[in-house]
């Protein structure tokens, strides 16, 4: 079981309220991602759940029991840190065995569990090495190994992939997702990268300045963002926003249209513009088009023969248009 | 960032050190302050009593006091100048590639580990002695009259001895700092058209600023209490030619048994050191920020 | 810079560096050489000295006359004792400051350093009188206490800079892994902190060994460490070069060797981590 419920949880550092009262329910077996720009309080929230920070108010319940005052190690959670936090003086084997040793398990059982975890994570060949002798990806796997041997109620990940290079990041992303399917344990994952959030999460929690902006599945957030912040944060490349007279035509303060929802034509369309930088990726072509409504990003599928300086016409897909009021809230 | 429990534990763990240092600072200092206002001479028991600031006026108007201040300044500034400039040049030299770097490094650092009494005696007798010292032999061999260093220029000789002890320290720190300079910065400067001298002043020296601050701070702390070198070489003489403030207080209180005026001298030294300290702490505080 | 250096330039630098290095080292080298000569040979002119035979005579005289080993042992007890006591007090303090930093931590550290700036003479009189009244003059325990307090700020600072390099996340990971404070200390912190503690110990033993204000003021004979013992050669014994050299060599050799081993730590330690 790994059900975690936050009830009015707040955190203050001195007089600064970094997390205003938050209510959130995380169900057993869910993969939940906290995402937001740096400094939004997502890591603090994770550390509150872990017990590494005291809450200033509210309650944290784990499996229905109040865990607000429980010591970190008694909450039944395992955490993978951004820096991996491996013990540098211990071998890989000892690192993975450490939580079991602390739980005073018999040596034979520890050995069996470590071997099993090492096998799952492809670490069997490295058990006697020290963390210093491993690559970034291997260290990451040791950190995960140390978390899974305890069979925790839930895993907490604090930006675990941010120290890896791009190719490795994609790999580890898949491995963690695969692990979630195998273990079916609750996972809470913190990242500032919306691509990680979209690809891994069952449920995304978008945070800004300590506040929850929206909670939902990746596609819910993509299709029906509740406000301009979520609309701009989820989706890559970013949504285009247009204000002023053009927005007023649609009865809104601002309208938003995703780059993939704009059709491009050399002959006719709603908005006339000039192509600036064009990025030809083969599978996609991203065009930066200057129009009377400002710079708009457009995603055209496949190979498109348009280049710097070409005149084009853009037409938004009206069904995919997002409308926002003055405060940034979405209009139905 | 931490939990309440760990903060309480932290306070408990820090307190022994704080209490000890507070005790070490405040109790004797208060006693010194008290003695400094008493008539208190170990040779004249029963002659005690409150005298207000008499001890201070006695100590501060003593001609030896001004000599001591002047000598202290000469000693500290002289050693600082020799060691920082010399250390910088030596560090630049040792940073170049050459054969036997490791051995030369060991040779250069060695004087720092020699205890002050030994280095003072070795210099005084085996080098500066006007009859049998190495310098005297050298002078005689080229037909010159041997020079009696400690009698004729006692303070300069002491500066030389102390600088010999501290030059390695300055060199080692500056060398370490120099080696931590990102070589790409120097290459970038070179691509930007900076010659060796510009590179030194615009790239190396700013990089070394922090290390130089540290050298000055640490050395000042230790140099202000230079004692053994004076005791075993000149005993502060001839006259007061090499008496520093530290040495003067020692003479007053433990040689002339005048505890009262010795204590007054101690307080004067504390006040002066604090002026220097405030200045230096600002400097290092700023440098330790980042 | 990974660029080839002309051999001529390298040769020039080599000659210059070795000349300066040998010149700086010469007083020590000369002391060691003279310690193996007879008194008569030791005062001869430098070039003549090198041709005279070696002898261990002076070393015998030094030991016979002044019980060198007593003073050596005093130095060991005083420097090691004061350092160990300082470590016992400083380790918890530095640990707390490094891992549970509060808004006042920096000020506290600066204050500790500032106690080091207080000139020793400022408290010479009361300490001397206190020691006299408590019967601590010329006692090893008295010096251990004074030198411990003297070096405590440096010990705290050094440990603090070493501990600060242990990432806090590791301790949090240990806590998540179910380690109690005791486990954390035994299995995680101590193994990671041992190198730092060792170099702090080494450097402070060196500083205490060479301390020459309080040792000279507070001891005369029975508790006198090597600094005081050597100061006794001031005069007229100082004119006996061979004996002075032998005594000096014995006094500096142990610490010189320790010092060569701890060059790197010296930089880190004495600069409070400000230079690496």
TrEMBL record, chain A:
Domain (ABC transporter) ranges: 4-234
Keywords for the protein's UniProt record, in alphabetical order: ATP-binding, Nucleotide-binding, Transport
A Pfam family reported for this protein in Swiss-Prot or TrEMBL: ABC_tran
The keyword Nucleotide-binding appears for this protein: yes
Example GO molecular function: ABC-type maltose transporter activity
InterPro entries per record: AAA+_ATPase (IPR003593), ABC_transporter-like_ATP-bd (IPR003439), ABC_transporter-like_CS (IPR017871), ABC_transpr_MalK-like (IPR015855), ABC_transpr_MalK/UgpC-like (IPR047641), Mo/tungstate-bd_C_term_dom (IPR008995), NA-bd_OB-fold (IPR012340), P-loop_NTPase (IPR027417)
Gene3D superfamilies associated with the record: 2.40.50.100, Nucleic acid-binding proteins, P-loop containing nucleotide triphosphate hydrolases
GO CC terms in record: ATP-binding cassette (ABC) transporter complex, substrate-binding subunit-containing; maltose transport complex
Family: Belongs to the ABC transporter superfamily.
Name of this protein: Sorbitol ABC transporter ATP-binding protein /mannitol ABC transporter ATP-binding protein
From TrEMBL, chain B:
Protein name, UniProt field: Sorbitol ABC transporter membrane protein /mannitol ABC transporter membrane protein
Entry keyword set: Cell membrane, Membrane, Transmembrane, Transmembrane helix, Transport
Transmembrane segments: 12-35, 73-94, 106-123, 155-178, 208-228, 263-284
A GO biological-process term: transmembrane transport
ABC transmembrane type-1 domain: residues covered: 69-280
Record family assignment: Belongs to the binding-protein-dependent transport system permease family.
Membrane topology, as annotated: Multi-pass membrane protein
InterPro entries: ABC_transporter_permease, MetI-like, MetI-like_sf
Superkingdom classification of source: Bacteria
One Gene Ontology cellular component: plasma membrane
Subcellular location: Cell membrane
From TrEMBL, chain C:
Record flagged with keyword Metal-binding: no
GO cellular component: plasma membrane
Gene3D superfamilies per UniProt: MetI-like
Transmembrane regions listed in the UniProt entry: 12-33, 72-96, 108-129, 141-163, 184-209, 240-261
Subcellular location: Cell membrane
Membrane topology: Multi-pass membrane protein
An example Gene Ontology biological process: transmembrane transport
Pfam families per record: BPD_transp_1
Recorded family membership: Belongs to the binding-protein-dependent transport system permease family.
Keywords: Cell membrane, Membrane, Transmembrane, Transmembrane helix, Transport
Protein name as it appears in the record: Sorbitol ABC transporter membrane protein /mannitol ABC transporter membrane protein
Claim: Cell membrane is one of the keywords in the record: yes
